């Protein structure tokens, strides 16, 4: 399948599985899961062609590995980034010493005051990969990568979780744990 079409389907999946499952008439199960058959039928009702083969190609080709299948392959979910209420079942994890967060320079004034807040999502997203975070920051303007002193945060009682695709999650990063010298 051509890359443009894969990206379109990936965006539709993100929207449905992370934010608005109701737009195709489905409800997410515990853990954010939905039956593959239910998802494909819902897309078909909306006039969108989605087969198991296409779904596997989209999931396999997604550069950020946003989606995952259950071990038996019968269910699918988004790994993180939900704005709908969902408990993904992640257990607390010991973070590396430093993590990174990509943002745009236009948000720095607010971040200096409030730290990194989750907004409409369930968690703040962090990474061990600075290059990935530059790409994230570019979505909203001139990118900047902030360093998060994750080990210090953890020692202060903040919880971290890590997803199957290596995204680190936390509820809030207070400003005192952020390094702004990369601007």
Radius of gyration, in angstroms, nearest whole number: 17 Å
CATH topology-level fold name of the largest domain: ADP-ribosylation fold
State the helicity in percent bands: 25-40%
Task: Tally the beta strands.
Answer: 11
CATH class of the largest domain: Alpha Beta
The averaged pLDDT comes out at 91
Secondary-structure element order, as H and E? HEHHEEEHEEHEHEEEE
First-to-last CA distance = 40 Å
Count of alpha/pi helices: 6
Structural domains: how many: 2
Uncertain stretches: none
Which strand-content bin applies to the residues? 15-25%
Structural class assignment: alpha+beta
Q: If strands are numbered along the chain, what order do they take across the biggest sheet?
A: 1-3-2
The rough form would be described as globular
The major pleated sheet works out as: 3 strands, antiparallel
Q: Provide the CATH architecture of the largest domain.
A: Alpha-Beta Barrel
Map the helices and strands.
Blueprint: H1 3-19, E1 34-35, H2 36-45, H3 52-61, E2 67-69, E3 75-78, E4 99-104, H4 108-114, E5 116-117, E6 124-126, H5 130-138, E7 143-148, H6 150-155, E8 161-162, E9 168-170, E10 172-173, E11 178-179
Helix pairs in contact: 1-3
């Amino acid at each position: 399948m051509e890359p443009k079409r894969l990206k379109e389907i990936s965006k539709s999946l993100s929207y449905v599985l992370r934010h608005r499952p109701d737009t195709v008439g489905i409800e997410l199960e515990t853990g954010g899961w939905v039956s593959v058959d239910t998802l494909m039928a819902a897309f078909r009702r909306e006039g969108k062609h989605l087969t198991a083969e296409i779904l596997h190609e989209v999931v396999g080709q997604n550069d950020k590995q946003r989606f995952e299948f259950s071990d038996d392959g019968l269910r699918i979910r988004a790994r993180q980034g939900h704005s709908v209420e969902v408990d993904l079942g992640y257990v607390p994890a010991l973070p590396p010493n430093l993590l990174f967060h990509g943002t745009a320079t236009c948000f720095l004034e607010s971040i200096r005051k409030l730290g990194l807040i989750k907004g409409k999502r369930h968690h703040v997203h962090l990474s061990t990969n600075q290059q990935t975070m530059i790409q994230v920051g570019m979505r909203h303007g001139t990118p900047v990568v902030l360093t998060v002193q994750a080990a210090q945060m953890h020692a202060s009682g903040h919880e971290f979780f890590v997803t199957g695709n290596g995204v680190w999650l936390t509820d809030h990063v207070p400003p005192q744990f952020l390094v702004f010298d990369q601007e």
